[in-house]
Design goal:
This protein is mostly helical. The protein is built from 13 helices and no strands. The mean pLDDT is 92.
């Protein structure tokens, strides 16, 4: 019921449902209808769900406390080890919360713990699960975004490139997720005003987008158009943005069409 209330964005009702679940679990345990392990499972699930809810509501301090409580209950009762994927996932959320709170030291140490833990597991066993690889990619990307916001562009590039390597290694050269990684790398090159490298990376993303007919294709054309516009290459920018608008229309991708039209307007202002 709690998840249904969250989907309706009735957060107060969702919170009530989760607390009722905690109470019901404790009552069933007291009546010997469930054992201690089942009770702990309920508590871990509910604390984690309440943490997610607090995060949705923007209550960072409460979310932090609930995620820490989830980890404490899970680790102390040997449901999770310190290196389990579930531990890393919650730790990644905590690092993201610290970033939003402006706690730089905790953010750095949090993401670095997550990344090292996942890389160590993969180094020991290259046949780790898709969850392990995917979680590593998410940790690298989220840490890179934090570094971009801190204007640490060179470090951000390092982590984004490592994220791309994870995608290629596990998902292949032409997977849509690689397009996302390349687009992020291109964006950082633009922020560094290294336009030649940005163009090269975005063109690579475009080639992959065509190969797998990915829905981000029209957005990539607009991004390349915006890059050319920064370089005062108005004709090339207009060509890219019009292509983005055409493909976006064909795909029914309204947001991409909107971005392309904005790009076209900017190009026409420069002519």
């Amino acid at each position: 019921m709690g998840h249904i209330a969250v989907a309706r964005e009735d957060f107060k009702e969702a919170e009530n449902c989760y607390h009722l679940a905690l109470h019901a679990g404790q009552q069933q345990f007291n009546e010997k209808k469930i054992d201690k392990r089942q009770l702990i499972t309920i508590r871990i699930y509910v604390f984690d769900s309440l943490g997610n809810l607090a995060l949705k509501m923007g209550d960072l301090k409460k979310a932090e406390e609930l995620y820490k409580r989830t980890l404490k209950v899970a680790v102390q009762n040997e449901f999770f080890t310190l290196t389990d994927n579930a531990t890393v996932e919650i730790s990644m959320r905590l690092a993201a919360i610290y970033a939003m709170m402006g706690k730089e030291e905790e953010t750095h140490s949090g993401f670095q713990f997550c990344i090292k833990t996942q890389e160590d597991k993969i180094k020991e066993n290259p046949d780790e699960s898709s969850y392990t690889y995917g979680l590593l990619g998410m940790c690298l990307e989220n840490y890179a975004k934090f570094l971009v916001n801190a204007k640490q562009y060179d470090k951000a590039l390092e982590y984004l490139q490592r994220a791309e390597e994870v995608v290629v290694r596990y998902l292949g050269e032409e997977h849509p997720q690689r397009i996302v990684a390349l687009n992020d790398i291109g964006t950082v090159h633009i922020l560094k005003e290294d336009y030649d490298k940005a163009e090269k990376v975005l063109k690579k993303a475009l080639a992959i987008g065509h190969a797998c007919k990915d829905e981000t294709l029209p957005v990539l054309y607009s991004n390349l158009g915006a890059l050319y516009l920064r370089q005062s290459k108005v004709d090339k920018a207009l060509e890219m943005c019009k292509t983005g608008e055409k493909i976006g229309t064909e795909m029914g991708h309204s947001e991409a069409v909107k971005r392309a039209k904005f790009c076209i307007e900017k190009c026409e202002e420069e002519e």
